[in-house]
Amino acid sequence: MAHKLGLVSISFRGLKPREILAAVKAAGLSCVEWGSDVHAPKDDERAIMDIAAMQRELGIECCSYGTYFRLGETPLSELDGYIKAAKLLGTNVLRLWCGTKNSEDYTADERDKLFSVCREAASIAEANGVLLCMECHNSTYTNRIDGALELMRCVDSPAFRMYWQPNQLRSIEENITYARKIGPYTYHAHVFNWSGKEKYPLSDAVDIWRVYLDALGGERTLLLEFMPDGRIESLAGEADALRAIADK
Fold first, then answer.
1. Is 88 exposed, middle or buried (0-12, 13-18, 19+ CB in 10 A)?
2. pTM (two decimals)
3. Which of 19, 45, 218, 224 is deepest in the core (most CB within 10 A)?
């Protein structure tokens, strides 16, 4: 099974894009998800074009645009700008957050309004040939599997999909269940080894991540997110662990 392996750029917010791309290439990874907050702001076309040129030079692709667009809060009028930036970076995948609180905290009326916005966003994505992928995140509607499945089924669009990542505040069994049920809707996965607020080397979690991948099923783009110690020098070792997970 050929998973694509890469890095989320926000792992190193303090570094320049060229430094990140050089480290990605040296670590044997093939792609980057660029964050819209620091490295690739949607309105900074020059910065985005510079990244695209560096990618071509080094043979690295952009697999996704990690936006901080929050459905139900960010005006939909801003979505076109994010889509344009994603395409300039060379990707048709945009990561979004859905909602402003956990799914269980929504009233029925609030949920219906959020889902209406999501369906409108999905229509915009379909018209532009891009995918909007919701991050599995606390304090959003996808914090629990039931909410994420409800969202996918109610929006019901091939342009509206999911990311997956384990929840560091939940049990391994809960995370496996989430991965298995959301797998058919999942495009990318953020990969890390966290427990609560603590970060650990990915090499300590190779076996459980193999179980997670089995639960997700199919081929995925697997993106390292943050280093256990925050150091760029640790990327090579984390990439080795990612390959051990993917090459089982």
1. middle
2. 0.96
3. 224
Domain tally for the chain?
Answer: 1
Radius of gyration of the chain (CA): 17
Q: Hunting for tokens 């929050």 — which residue is that? A: 70
Taking residues 35-42, report their average pLDDT.
Answer: 98
Q: Which residue spans within the chain are E strands per DSSP?
A: 4-8, 31-35, 61-71, 93-98, 131-134, 160-164, 186-191, 194-195, 198-199, 221-224
User: Using an 8 Å Cβ cutoff, are 205 and 171 in contact?
Assistant: no
Residue 66 · residue 35 · CB < 8 Å: yes
Other CB atoms closer than 10 Å to residue 42's CB: what's the count?
21
pLDDT digits (tens, 9 = 90+) for 21-32: 999 999 999 999
Domain coverage including residue 169:
4-246
pLDDT at 248: 74
CATH assignment at residue 109: 3.20.20.150
Distances (CA, A) of 209 to 8, 9, 29: 18, 21, 18
For 209-248, what is the HEC assignment?
HHHHHHHHCCCCEEEECCCCCCCHHHHHHHHHHHHHHHCC
Average confidence (pLDDT) over 174-186 = 97
Do 97 and 70 form a contact (C-beta atoms < 8 A)?
yes
